[in-house]
């Protein structure tokens, strides 16, 4: 009997799927796991053609008009509902 067949459906699903799709600047970005640093999120976004740079400021959107700045070394637990904004910090709007 394989390990997968001994897991209940919820365990089986999480066992097979470790990656997660977040959004950075409204674009989907796939991460290999649910824990990443701000730096890793920016690297993954750049590798997946999101037009940002590593020196951009990363901000997590928490909902209800709340945000949280994420520094490069900060660990973040992400889900498929996680959304981030990345910008150069120059607010000339």
* Global outline: globular
Give the class-level CATH name. Answer: Alpha Beta
- Total strands: the figure is 7
Q: What does the largest sheet look like?
A: 5 strands, mixed
Cα(first) to Cα(last) distance is 61 Å
- The secondary structure category is alpha+beta
Give the ordered list of helices and strands.
HEEEHEEEE
CATH fold annotation: Ubiquitin-like (UB roll)
- Rg from Cα: 16 Å
Name the average pLDDT.
87
Number of distinct helices = 2
Strand order of the largest sheet: 2-1-7-4-5
Considering DSSP H and I runs of 4 or more, what fraction of the residues is helical? 10-25%
Number of domains: 1
* DSSP strand content: 35-45%
Reported CATH architecture? Roll
Could you list the spans in which at least 5 consecutive residues all have pLDDT below 50? 1-5, 10-14
What does this structure look like?
It is a single chain. This protein has 93 residues and is α+β, with helices and mostly antiparallel strands. It has one domain: Ubiquitin-like (UB roll), CATH 3.10.20. Helices cover 19% and strands 35% of the residues. The chain has two helices and seven strands, in the order H-E-E-E-H-E-E-E-E. The chain has helices spanning 9-16, 38-47, and strands at 20-24, 27-31, 35-37, 57-63, 66-70, 75-77, 83-87. The strands form two sheets. It has a five-stranded mixed beta sheet with strand order 2-1-7-4-5, with helices on one face. Strands 3-6 form a two-stranded antiparallel sheet. A hairpin with a 2-residue loop joins strand 1 and strand 2 (27-31). It is globular and about 40 Å long.
């Amino acid at each position: 009997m394989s390990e997968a067949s001994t897991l209940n459906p919820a365990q089986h699903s999480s066992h097979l799927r470790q990656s997660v799709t977040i959004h950075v600047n409204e674009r989907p970005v796939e991460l290999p796991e649910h824990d990443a640093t701000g730096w890793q999120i920016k690297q993954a976004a750049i590798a997946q053609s999101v037009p940002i740079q590593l020196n951009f400021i990363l901000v997590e959107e928490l909902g209800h008009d709340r945000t949280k700045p994420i520094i490069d070394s900060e660990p973040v637990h992400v889900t498929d509902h996680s959304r981030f904004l990345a910008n150069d910090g120059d607010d000339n709007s």
